[in-house]
Specification:
alpha/beta; Signal recognition particle alu RNA binding heterodimer, srp9/1; 2,3-Dihydroxybiphenyl 1,2-Dioxygenase, domain 1; 4-stranded mixed sheet; 34% helix; transferase; Glyas_Bleomycin-R_OHBP_Dase; methyltransferase
């Protein structure tokens, strides 16, 4: 009898390694004519990333013949799709992508690269030049915010609320009360 997956990690390993099944759930993003440009930009920002396929509109439309219709790409190994669907729908902050960063250098890289031509926001949030929202967050932040000493956690929250790009040293100073 074949062993069945017993938890999420086992299920993912079972699906990907033993049966070569694609990612079950993946983001599908709606763009207005610049899906290929966006995908090319995103794969330049993240490691282990590539454009994997581009489907193009034919003579029947609705987009211009030869223009990208759907762009499939991977960011840091995770599958995404981008559709050139037109101006009917736009991105909002109601959906964002969180980037967990292990160092200030990572925070700086993603913040600077993704916010260029976009809009920096508060508390580690930004909109890129395509209007897509990102949260650039150091991995230490949840730990600091969940400190059992509520005074420390509150100082960290207050410090974070005053930041645009998150500063790990500043968050740690707030936790220490210095």
């Amino acid at each position: 009898m074949q062993r069945l997956p017993i938890d999420n990690q086992d299920a993912r390993a079972y699906a990907r390694e033993e049966h070569d099944v694609a990612q079950k759930i993946s983001p599908f993003l709606w763009f207005d004519g610049n899906a290929e440009e966006a995908a090319t930009f995103y794969v330049s920002v993240f490691p282990d990333s590539e454009v994997t396929a581009v489907s193009r509109y034919g003579e029947a439309g609705p987009g211009p013949a030869g223009s990208a219709m759907v762009v499939s790409f991977k960011l840091d190994g995770q599958e995404f799709s981008a559709l050139n669907g037109g101006p009917q729908f736009t991105f909002s902050e109601a959906v964002s992508f969180l980037i967990s960063c292990g160092s200030q250098a990572e925070v700086d890289h993603y913040w600077e690269t993704l916010s260029e031509g976009g809009e920096p926001g508060p508390c580690g949030w930004l909109k890129d030049r395509f209007g897509l929202s990102w949260q650039v967050v150091p991995t230490v932040l949840p730990e600091l915010l969940q400190d059992p000493d509520r005074e420390k956690a509150n100082r960290v929250m207050q410090a974070m609320m005053g930041m645009g790009k998150l500063d790990i040293a500043g968050l740690e100073r707030a936790s220490a009360g210095t």
